[in-house]
Amino acid sequence: MVKPKRILVVDDDEQNRELLVAMLEALGYETEDAVDGFDALGKLSLDIDLVLLDVMMPGMDGFEVTRKIRSTPPYSDLPVVMVTALTSKEDRIRAVEVGANDFISKPIDKTELTVRTVSLLKMKEHQDTIKQYQKELEDKVEKRTADLRTVLSEKIEAHRRIYQAHLDTINRLVIAAEYKDEDTADHIKRMSSYCALLAKALKLTPQEIEVLYYASSMHDVGKIGIPDHILLKPGKHNPEEWEIMKQHTTIGGYILDNSPSELLQSGEIIALSHHEKWDGSGYPKGLSGENIPLLGRICAVTDVYDALTSKRPYKEAFSNEKSLEIMKGGSGKHFDPNLIDLFFKNLDEIFAIQKKFKTGSLLKENERFSPEYPEFLRQIMYHV
């Protein structure tokens, strides 16, 4: 008896997942489903023959899942089909580069699904020795699978807890910084959203956009180490105070140093580089041009714009008109010219973010980071 082919369906949208599972089971296939990238990677050991993989998912997008499948020897030949609404040449080239075998466009056409699954499953048959199962062996496999599901569920949940722990660490660092400066919460909401918008305009991957969105909130975490009489001084700093104030970049880098978390690693890069300037006159290292990490260059633009348009202890808020004039004057000096161009091309969205997060205080419980996308980030990722 030839064992039916088992297909893993990966999609964070329950309705999409159930529809695809129903279509596959109607074609005679066994199915496993996964709600995210962590779940998918954990279930590869359940004798999977083909993966139907959504691209846009929180935590770990389809590109990253495919890359991990290809780098894991037992599954490096496993057929992967991207199920996606993305149609640009760049997105498809990126999918091929990470190892995808084929594409199915949303909304899914049953005939297209049938043709592509049959073709790829035949390819896998030629790669693998056809396994014949007797009834006794099937019983053993069923028991082994049940035991394995229990172990895998624990492993998958452990990965989710680790990711949540990283977000919780960010929350606590951000909240600690807020207690030093009452204006920080609104600034963080606006700046993180501005950063995500610029990252989208740069055509970064969904994974990269999400990391920047969360990591940018830690740009000024080093201000925890700056004395209040300097941090909150209602006037211009003298030279000695300014030297102390500039140390918030290196203090932030020290706080975030040596973390295994990609989020905190990116936060460290941002903390150390968001005050560097395109012409090399910034601090703490005096980097210039593209020697400044991209994450730092993005945050430099968004941080300065929000500072200009916000009331601070040492200044009143400038108008958008005056602030934009200053930003344009800083192109090629303070800021990456390409990023300034993108910033001005997306002013409508910038103003919408500014209006959305105009007032508030400490982050409320339902505004803190979680493994799911906040509504604004979901709108950026899904173009809704």
Overview of the structural elements:
There is one protein chain. The protein is α/β, with parallel strands linked by helices and 384 residues long. The chain has 2 domains: 6-132, 3-Layer(aba) Sandwich (Rossmann fold), CATH 3.40.50; 165-382, Hypothetical protein af1432 (Orthogonal Bundle). The chain has 17 helices and 5 strands. It has helices at 14-26, 37-42, 62-70, 89-98, 110-127, 135-180, 184-201, 206-215, 228-231, 239-246, 248-256, 262-273, 294-308, 320-329, 337-345, 347-356, 375-382, and strands at 6-10, 30-34, 50-54, 80-84, 102-105. Strands 2-1-3-4-5 form a 5-stranded parallel β-sheet, with helices on both faces. Strand 1, helix 1 and strand 2 form a beta-alpha-beta unit. Helix 7 packs antiparallel against helix 8 (206-215), helix 7 (184-201) packs across helix 13 and helix 7 (184-201) packs parallel to helix 17. The longest helix has 46 residues, at 135-180. The radius of gyration is 25 Å and the shape is elongated. Residues 360-373 have low confidence and may be disordered.
